[in-house]
Amino acid sequence: IHAEYMGIQSRPQLVRLRQSILETRQTETAASFQLFFFSGKGAIHKMQGSAMQLYAFRLQEDEQLKEGLQKFVRENGLKAASISTCVGSVKYASIRLANATAENRNAVQHFNEKFEIVSLVGTVCGDGKCHLHICLADKDGVCVGGHLLEAEIFTTAEIVLAEATQLVYVRRHDAYTGFEELCVERRE
Questions:
Q1: Measured distance CA(21)–CA(35) in Å, rounded
Q2: Helical spans, DSSP H, in the chain
Q3: Strands, E assignment, the chain
Q4: Which of 30, 134, 135, 138 is the most interior residue, by most CB within 10 Å?
Q5: Residues 5, 26: Cα–Cα separation, whole Å
Q6: Splitting the chain (188 residues) into consecutive groups of 10 residues, what average pLDDT does each group show?
Q7: Cα angle value 69/136/127 (rounded, 5°)
Q8: Whole-prediction pTM
Q9: Residue 150: CA atoms inside 13 Å, Cβ hemisphere, count?
Q10: Rounded to whole angstroms, how far apart are CA atoms 44 and 20?
């Protein structure tokens, strides 16, 4: 991994980091970018980016949203996928809420009603391991969101995935959070 550790300890350091990001945006091309990510307590890593390849597909009524994403990634050999956009509807969803912890994973809600998919974001590794957050709107426009465990498509789900073609996403256990967390590596 070609990464540069930057320990951010103060607001001036954060301001300088922000300026560096803005300067990078002005000088980098679409095929290459700077990727900044956090790991552990306050550590920021900087990694040279990657070209992106887009994939568009659609899931249909009664298909499982998460399983469909995982299947597409595996069948197409993607190694570092992220959700670019997703619109559609579901008729069932199971969502883990924000107060869940590694010790108490029971903060889960199950919904047996129709929802519009307002947002779906996250990453999917080549082995199908993923971290997905979803926001759903009910018939009155009231939204609920959290960590997607499962959802069944009502009419359709139109999905665009972006793959970082020079990177690999893997998930490894993080002792600090108690969960499998994203690790970004260069492709060989």
A1: 9
A2: 11-27, 65-75
A3: 3-7, 34-39, 43-48, 52-60, 80-96, 108-111, 115-125, 130-137, 143-164, 167-173, 180-186
A4: 134
A5: 22
A6: 41 60 51 48 56 94 97 96 97 88 76 97 96 97 96 97 93 87 88
A7: 20
A8: 0.74
A9: 8
A10: 13
